[in-house]
Amino acid sequence: xxxxxxxxxxxxxxxxxKSFFHPMREIGGFKTCPGYxxxxxxxxxxxxxxxxxxxxGATSVxxxxxxxxxxxxxxxxxxxxxxxxGSVYSMIVFGLQIDEFEYAYRIGxxxxxxxxxxxxxxxLLLDPYARAVAGQSAWGTxxxxxxxxxxxxxxxxxxxxxxxxxxxxxxxxxxYETHVRGFTRHESSDVTHPGTFDGLMEKIxxxxxxxxxxxxxxxxxxxxxxRDMRVHDGKLLLDYWGYNPVAFFAPNTAYSAEHExxxxxxxxxxxxxxxxxxxxxxxxxxxxxHTAEGNEDGSIFSFKGVDNSVxxxxxxxxxxxxxxxxxxxxxxxxxxxxxxxxxxxxYWVIEYRIDGFRFDLASILGRNEDGTPMHxxxxxxxxxxxxxxxxxxxxxxxxxxxxxYQVGSFPSRGDRWAExxxxxRDDLRCFLKGDSxxxxxxxxxxLGSQDLYPPTKRGECASVNFITCHDGFTLYDLYTxxxxxxxxxxxxxxxxxxxxxxxxxxxxGETDRQDVNDLxxxxxxxxxxxxxxxxxxPMFLAGDEFGNTQFGNNNAYCQDNEISWLDWxxxxxxxxxxxxxxxxxxxxxxxxxxxxxxxxxxxxFPETSLHSAKPWxxxxxxxxxxxxxxxxxxxxxxxxxxxxxxxxNSHWEGHQVQLPELPDGMYWRIAVNTFNGPESxxxxxxxxxxxSHSGIVWLEPRSVMILVAAEGK
Length: 713
Hints:
The protein has 3 domains: 2-109, Immunoglobulins (Immunoglobulin-like, Sandwich); 170-590, Alpha-Beta Barrel (TIM Barrel); 597-711, Immunoglobulin-like, CATH 2.60.40. By secondary structure, the protein is an alpha+beta fold. The strands form 9 sheets. The chain has an 8-stranded parallel β-barrel with strand order 14-15-20-21-22-23-24-25. Strands 1, 2, 3, 4, 7 and 8 form a 6-stranded antiparallel beta sheet that branches. The chain has a 6-stranded antiparallel beta sheet with strand order 26-27-28-33-30-31, with helices on one face. Strand 21, helix 9 (378-385) and strand 22 form a beta-alpha-beta unit. Helix 10 (422-432) crosses helix 11 (439-446). It contains 16 helices and 33 strands.
């Protein structure tokens, strides 16, 4: 944004600066002139502040100025008619210092809720383009009465020190999904600034050692954690996850370790810069499908009062379509909203150098103004083709709460959009816990889900593979609980998904039985092994690598406590699990054939092939629970064949497995056997890996074996 403003300032200088910046009239005690109406929001110009807001149905607009933290305004400036162009109101106000004031709007116009018109000059409205929001900087607190959202002006001269994005190809990413606060809020995190951007930055050495190269942050747009504050069983419940945005352009200042008046966002920039410097990209989980204003019973603090029928999908009686499950649905394909979303993403890319976006309930982004799905949604087309977003990862959660499920059919504009592959999650969960009839589907998922994403139409990077994410069980809980335990949420355990495809291994919850705990640990390793050996982009939930638990809560959206916070004590307790995850991430990086096409193998092995307990037999039956997948190509140096075989046994009995025959002089070496103890479940050096001289191995119950082809015995 600074670059945009600098360029704009240069243009204004050339085009007779006086005609743009010369005060024309006094309003509310301040000298003013018509503003720069092509740039939405509020920003600093030489000598003044430009305020621009768009409202199609307004009959009057007032700019309301407050001293910081004061309840009464010190100035109210009505926009005169000559400061309006079409439905855009724009004014430059001279003599304001950006660190001394906060601002909002009052908009007058017709009030008729049945027609979707909610204009009311009594409402104080937050600028939809506000770059920072005042009054939200202390987590979990706000004034009990008289709270109002207000915008602040941001002036950032952030020095990126020449650090650039690592620009990692999609197939080479290993995505680590985390919550900024929950990642380091627990006292065991041992950071100086727990629960903040700085706290996360202190953990970068850990992330680098683990091997992940992309961090996906759950929502960091400004949201109000106090929105649905309540007390249940003596515990304060908040909107902890943050999937209820207040302002799309503003970072959540409660995630900053220090107050950043006029420099809001610099701590986030430092985090992005540090992650980039350490070879990691940053992906934001963005929520454009609804806002915190809710339905007709919700508050009016921004979009509703600015242009309710523009920003939201409305039923004929003026009530709100609720395809989000959160009260309202943003009218994403209205031209004004469409423009705002594009400008928002550009802003985050330019100002914060974000590398990608994961779109929450992205199917809503493809709905028409009447709520029906569109064949070629204008917004999705624009995001895919936008030159400023070229090279930026676009990842869709390809469903919504209104029943639209588009995994494999999301409007993608060729290979531009990737998707959270919900079918990968469901199929792998079912197969790995031993369900029948899942062998064929599982083999498709491991090979990149080409049945869902044909390479000729979607490219090779459309599938983001995951078994766990923030929404649902952690990996530890997936094999510890048969059913959800969400009583702490206060909804009588009615919230959250009931069909989790989980398995408690015979005992619900924690147990001292060693055999059960050993099985649970093995199943977690099985999941990690398969995830890292599947074509597509792997993603896993922070803490899964060391057995973090939410105690059976699969919808911890309101739990700002030990249920959601990562307990770093578990890292030492479950060190062998962490080390296995780390090994598998580095194994994936070491073998390019797992990530995508390479040069063909000299041995003429097919690039991919499917097997069962017998080689080349992919005639899977209902009771097939042993499958094998072989990848073959050339290594990164193009000096030798890179052949990897993954054998999966989800049966409760062991099986003898015959491996595909290798060329003369090559033998299968066992790199991973999840049935083994931590001393030998994964082996780093190929010389130390056991050799299968006969080409036959015994695959223990509920285990995964990974073998690599090597020359010599």
